[in-house]
Amino acid sequence: MAAEAPILDEFRRLRARVPQLTGALAAGVDGLVFAHDTPGVEPDGLAALTAAALGVAVRVTDATGRGDFRELLVRGADGYVATYAAGRTAVLTLLAQDGVNVGRLHLEGRRAGARIGELVDAEATPVRRSPAKGSTKGSAQEPPKHPAKDPAKPLATRAKTTRTARTTNTDARNTTNARTTTDS
Questions:
Q1: What's the rounded Cα separation, in Å, for the pair 101 and 120?
Q2: Fewer beta carbons below 10 Å: N end or C end of the chain?
Q3: 45 vs 71, 87, 116, 141, 160, CA distance in Å?
Q4: Contact, 64 vs 125, CB < 8 A?
Q5: CA pair distance 136, 33, nearest whole angstrom
Q6: Other Cβ atoms closer than 10 A to 23
Q7: What's the pLDDT at 165?
Q8: What is the pTM assigned to this prediction?
Q9: What are the pLDDT digits (tens) for 82-98?
């Protein structure tokens, strides 16, 4: 993979920003290792376990209506394993000591995941040729755009409605509360 060297550079910058980081791995969602810096941890096994955990995490977010997978954090007695989405087809897994600032880990992990995702997605995207003259959208050369993701179409927005002011009867509420308190 041509993106391995830039990914390893990103790992070095990440270790400089988060000193408690003990390892980093970029892998495909299928468990294929793109690049790793995981001393003492077998990268292929970690990538396979990450792919399995990712599968479960995606199912949980789908089942609970929480949207697309973004990140997964596991804490063990001796530290953390954090996995972040990295583009369309990759994930970034970080290993950190127990004393790491988790907020900082998330901040830097998300940023690094976005940059690594750009590298991996750029390499995975085939070069498109412009469609022949006279061809229409949706032809074999150019797939149709998803309407929700088409930048030319603005997303629907909700219209604001005016609300009437609520009035409360504090005497009635106090009487109800007093009755409840004395009845019980």
A1: 28
A2: C
A3: 20, 22, 21, 39, 52
A4: no
A5: 39
A6: 20
A7: 55
A8: 0.67
A9: 999 999 999 999 999 99
Tokens of 86: 């990295």
Residues of the chain with pLDDT under 70: 1, 125-184
- Residue whose tokens read 């006279």: 134
R_g (Cα) of the chain, nearest Å: 25
Question: CA 149, CA 142: separation in Å to the nearest integer?
Answer: 15
Cβ count near 37 (within 10 Å): 20
Closest CA to 54 of 78, 84, 32, 75: 84
Reading across the β-sheet that carries 21-28, which strands appear in turn?
A: 33-37, 21-28, 90-97, 79-86, 71-76
As given in the structure block, the two tokens for residue 168 are 């409360």
In 1-113, the DSSP E strands lie at 21-28, 33-37, 71-76, 79-86, 90-97
Tokens matching residue 123: 């390499």
SS3 147: helix
Grouping H, G, I as helix, E, B as strand and the rest as coil, residue 13 is helix
Q: Return all residues near 55 (Cβ < 8 A) that are at least 6 apart.
A: none
- 152 φ, ψ (degrees, to nearest 5): -75, -25
